Amino acid sequence: MVGCALCNAEDTELYVSGVPICLKCIALREKKDEASIRDILISQLAQETLHAEAATTEFNAVTSDVPSFLPQPDGTQRILNASRALTVARSEMMKAHHRLNDYLERGTVPEDLKQRSK
């Protein structure tokens, strides 16, 4: 038997990518990966929340500027564009929220983060 390459504390027959590793070190490694995934998902949610808040501020600014004395199609288009941006931002925020919630409640790792956890 060979000692663990990380802690060298105990003999192990377990190898990961050709490197001997003990069960304790694997557990620590998995906890670190889980924390990393959780931190990424929380960061993404915070970022999307900020985008939604900015879109809300922009929408409120555009709609409070009525009448803007812009020609009819231009004024209407500004409101439409702000509304669409707000809808997209809120949708992305909810997507980030659902991804974090699925991970915390069910342990479901999003597909784009599965490579990072391995």
Helix count equals 3
Shape: rod-shaped
Strand order of the largest sheet: 1-2
Mean pLDDT: 81
Strand content: 5-15%
Any low-confidence stretches, pLDDT <50, length ≥5?
none
Structural class: mainly alpha
List keywords for this structure.
118 residues, mainly alpha, two-stranded antiparallel sheet, 3 helices, 4 strands
Description of the molecule:
There is one protein chain. With 118 residues, the protein is mostly helical. It has one domain (32-117). It is 71% helix and 7% strand. It has 3 helices and 4 strands, in the order ββββααα. Strands 1-2 form a two-stranded antiparallel sheet. A two-stranded antiparallel sheet has the order 3-4. A hairpin with a 2-residue loop joins strand 3 and strand 4. Helix 1 packs antiparallel against helix 2. The longest helix has 42 residues, at 23-64. The two termini are 25 Å apart. The mean pLDDT is 81.
Secondary-structure map:
Layout: E1 2-3, E2 11-12, E3 15-16, E4 19-20, H1 23-64, H2 72-106, H3 111-117
Helix pairs in contact: 1-2
In short:
The chain is mainly alpha-helical and 118 residues long. Helix content is 71%, strand content 7%. The chain is built from three helices and four strands; from the N terminus they run ββββααα.
